[in-house]
């Protein structure tokens, strides 16, 4: 499960996807399958969440990793490269960005 914490314990990655309502469910299915069968089993994976807007034109993916290098190693695997090629056909764009947590509020 993702933990939002100011402590530098995790590498946070937020990926945004832009798509049409017609491909939203297909993209959610592809992302869910990637997490369930591959990504969640990779070294350093902590947790993730998928969020979709009400117009079904954007998906935000929040994931956490033990180290930046763990996330990068997962992206370089042949399986993830193949999955990302398929994902790219389902959306207009997607961009993973690594973040450090600046502050949290309760």
TrEMBL record:
GO terms for molecular function: monooxygenase activity. Its EC number is 1.13.12.21. SUPFAM superfamilies: Dimeric alpha+beta barrel (SSF54909). PROSITE patterns: ABM. Keywords: Monooxygenase, Oxidoreductase. It is an enzyme of class 1 (oxidoreductase). Residues 11-102 form the ABM domain. Pfam families: ABM. This is Tetracenomycin-F1 monooxygenase. It comes from Aliiroseovarius pelagivivens.
């Amino acid at each position: 499960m993702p933990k939002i914490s100011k402590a530098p314990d995790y590498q946070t990655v937020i990926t945004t996807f832009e798509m049409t309502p017609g491909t939203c469910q297909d993209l959610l299915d592809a992302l869910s399958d990637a997490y369930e069968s591959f990504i969640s089993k990779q070294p350093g994976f902590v947790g993730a969440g998928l969020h979709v807007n009400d117009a079904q034109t954007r998906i935000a993916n929040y994931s956490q990793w033990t180290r930046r290098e763990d996330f990068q190693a997962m992206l370089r695997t042949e399986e993830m490269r193949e999955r990302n090629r398929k994902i790219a056909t389902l959306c207009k764009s997607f961009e993973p960005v690594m973040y450090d947590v600046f502050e949290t509020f309760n």
